[in-house]
Structures are given as structure tokens and as C-alpha cells.
Amino acid sequence: MLFITSIVDRPVQAKSGELLGKLEDLIVRMGDERYPPIAGLVVRDGRRRFFVPASQLQDLNGATRLSSSIVDVQSFVRRNGEVLLRRDVLDHQLIDITGRRIVRVNDVQLTRVDGIFRVVGVDISARALLRRLGPRTLAGRIVGRQIIDWSDVQYLATTAPVQLKVSYDRLAELNPVDLARIVDALSYRESAEIVAALDEETAAETLEEVSDERLADLLEGMDQERAADILEEMTPAAAADVLEDLDEEVAEQILSRMEPEEAADVQTHLAFDEDSAGRLMTTDFVSVPASATVGDALAAIRSMEEVPDPLLAVYVMAPDDPGALQGLVRLRNLILADPATPLAEVMDEDVPTVGPHDRAEDAARVLAEYNLLAVPVLDEETRKLLGIVTVDDALAVLLPDVWQRRGARGFAA
Q: Do the domain assignments include residue 411?
């Protein structure tokens, strides 16, 4: 195993033994390979810097030795797609996907596989810095490296001053909360780079968890069609909160680009105060007529293109007043009951409710006091079912510092 800090600034020798200069850097080209191969060397001879292809590299241990005595010493010109390990990776931040954190690279690990030198890991230990600051004679005596396999890190394309094609597919594997912490902790440019690489659903789930300030910056900085697509994937309540944090003109433009149905749901939530049950509620629930059976209710759920998440209960509507809540059937009771059982026999009629203009804290207290997973929200005048406030929504109110993401999270190793 080799480390880049132990080989840079060391002599580069031709096959004949002639000293060509000192090794300034190693070049890799990011691609689909798990461990990127070294593509070439940057050699410095005085003020001159020239490129040596990896095909001429014989050894890196100790002095860098080439397999040829003939070297083209034309000036090195950097090209798009090239990453310099010393300049662009060492001392820069990467994302540790397994550890779900941002780390600082204190050394880069290399090894030779079938005659090809490859990048295989990064050292993030504090002792790696000590090795670089101390005499080379002591470097081998210091133990305690903390190596992260290269396949478990995400390189950020904005780190390099040239255009790079970097895949961010593995970031989608992270929990949206963990990914949001990373987005918050990175610079705006790096955060925008990550969000731009995510699909709309993953981007929406992630942005629902980032700080308000970062979220507004990201949405105002991206293409409005893309912003509208992302908001369509959010819950209407979350999308409404987002739009209120944006510049008013920008918010209107994004809202106008959303699909009419999704835009209408968001506007419904915007009609209520930010700290009200109406803003907090979700309009995604299952309703069935009182004349239905348990089997009818289960069939209705199965036939839905998208089943509400979470699915906590089925809401039973009055037969003589469509939209008016008569009761609910908890999911547990629905599953255990015989399919032929009328809903009236397993329905709870004495259901606590709240109004859309009630404070969100009041809705949360109703959930806690009655040990509910969701509380219906009824129109004060018509008593129609407008939506439900779930226990998850209540936690966002009662535990804002834990459940919601406020402020930047800095957490690098």
C-alpha cells in the first residue's frame, strides 16, 4: 500500500536512471470503475510541468521510476474530466456514504493491482496530518490510520476546477434525513450539485428535511420547472411552507408551473395560518360510504393508484351528507374483521376532531390526550372532512428541534 503524501515531491527517474524532475501529482479520470486507475503523472522540473502517461509508469515505491527513457516533456495542460489527487482530493471534503457524514481527506491510499496503480481509499485520521508535518523518517512509525474504502465515498464534482461527470447514484441510498444533514453542511454550490443529481421524489424527501434558509436558496437558484416538479412530490403542507419562505414573485411563478391539481392542494393549505391545523393536515386519506362492508373498504384501498402513507384508518362518510364524517375504522380492526362485516359494526363514532383554524399545538394535544394516530380536521360550518393531522405531524409541532431541521448542521470528521 502507498500513500500519496509519501510519494509526491520525490524524484522521477527515467529507465536510464536520468532524473527528470519531481512528482507533483497523480491524475485519475473518474468513471464507472470501483477503484479509479492512475491515468498519468504530473512532473515538475524547475518551472516546467509536463505529463507522463501511466503506461510509462514502472514503480511508485520510493522514487518514481518510468519504464522508458524517452519522455515527451511538453507543458502539462489539464483537460476536463481529470482529477488531480494532490490538488483536488487531498485536504478536500468527501461524503462518507457508509458513515453518512462529511469527511476531510488527509491522505490518499494507492495500490497496484495487475500492474495498474489504483486509488483504493482515503485516510481521514488526524495522525495522517502528523505524518505530513513530521520528518519522513518517522512516517512509517506512526500507526492509527483511519481508512475509508474509495467505493464508500462520494467525490464532489465542484471540488475540481474542470468539468467532471460524477455519478451520485449511491447518495439516493441514504435516508433523506441523513442526506439533508449533508446538504445543509456543504457549501451552497456543493448542495446544489447534489440536489440537481437526485430524482424529483428523492430531492423532495431530502429538501423537506433541510433548513429553511438552505431550502429557499436551492429552490430559488434552480430552474423553475425543476422546482415545480420537486414541490409536486412534497406533501401539500410542506410545499406550502416552502413557498411562503421564497420570494413572493418566485413562489407565484413556481406555483403556476405546477400541475393544476397539485397546485390547488397547495393553495388550500396556503389559505390557513402557518401554525394552524389546516396548514398541518394532509388531504391524503381513504374515505368510504357508511353502507360499505369491510371487504368493500379493503377493495377500495387496493384499487388506489397511490395508497396514503401512513395508512392509519378508513374514514366513513354519512350516507345522507356526502363528505360529512360519520366515524372511522382503525386499520387494525379493518384487517381483523370478516370481509362481510358492515363497517357500522367496527366503526368508532365518537371521534375527536379539530377545526382547520385551530392551533396546530391544539391538534397535537388532542392526539396525545386520546392516544390517536391521526385526528380528523372538519370544516367549522359544513362539518365536512377536510383532512387529517397525523402523529408525525404532531411531533413536528411538539418537538421542532428534533423533528424539523433548522439551521446548518456542520458535522465533518
A: no
Choose the final residue of a domain: 237, 271, 305: 271
DSSP assignment of 45-63: ETTEEEEEEGGGEEE-SSS
Residue ranges making up the domain that contains 328 = 286-398
Are both 246 and 113 inside the same structural domain?
A: no
- Residues in contact with 219: Cβ distance below 8 Å, sequence separation at least 6, in sequence order: 207, 227, 230, 231, 242, 246, 250, 254
Query: CB under 8 Å to 169, separation ≥6 — which residues?
Result: none
Residues 202 and 342 in one domain: no
DSSP state string for 130-161: HHHHS-HHHHTT-----EEEGGGEE--GGGSS
Residue (of 90, 88, 104) closest to 158 by Cα position: 88
CATH of the domain at 321: 3.10.580.10
| Segment 36-81, tens digit of pLDDT | 999 999 999 988 999 999 999 999 987 899 998 888 878 888 888 8
Same domain, 10 and 146: yes
321-370 confidence digits (pLDDT tens) = 878 999 999 999 999 999 999 999 999 999 999 999 999 999 999 998 98
Cα separation, 43 vs 266, in Å, equals 59
Q: What global pTM score does this model have?
A: 0.78
